[in-house]
Amino acid sequence: MWIDDQADLETVKTWVKHCPAMKLVATIDGKILWANAAFLEWSQYTLAELTKISWIQLSVADENLEYDMASAKMLDVYTPMYRVKKQYIPKGSAPEWGILNVMRYPMNGEIKWCLCTWEPMKDSSSAAFKQAMDSNEKIQQRITEMTEVLKVITAQTDEDRYVISTIRLVQKYPKAAAMVLIFAAGILGLNNLLEFFQRTGLSEIPIRVEPKAESDSVGISVPIHNADMVRLY
What we know:
- With 233 residues, the protein is of the alpha+beta class.
- The chain contains ten helices and nine strands.
- The protein has two domains: 127 residues, PAS domain (Beta-Lactamase, 2-Layer Sandwich); 75 residues, no CATH class.
- The strands form three sheets. Strands 2-1-5-4-3 form a five-stranded antiparallel β-sheet.
């Protein structure tokens, strides 16, 4: 095969340096060793700047970065490569979504470095994916809120749910509730209805308090009715 028999090191180096695919060489602990011209142009960093920062700093700190870091530590002879959808941050720009393909080198034995290829998502795809991710976060938040509401509902007793339902019905249909009350008054009688309210604690019981009778000028005790008072207990 050409790559094995005829390609020399200089040919391969020239190809990788100038190919449009974005190439990145890094270590598992985060150090960036080298990047080709395509990646430098996209990231807006110089090679000297990239080697002073880590690919962890270049990434958005989220669950995708956590997956990337965990996967890098799990590379072995049985799993020599992985890919992850994540966000890199170009210099002075907003984060951009893309696919990072990572391959360990050498394929077995102790890892020296990782050979990476970065594939930024196209503008339309990136925008659609960002919108989908935002929508997913909103859905997850809504599910969490609904779960909390369900916890409150399931914690209520049957009596609580009955009272709440009754109050909501009265609030929703106040006229109908008033007519039911009038109908009940007609059947039970106002006195019976009042007694019912008093027994259930919905109304206070009026108690007449008679004032002491005062003596007139001839020594006859005369009750003063216009001073009658009513106290509620």
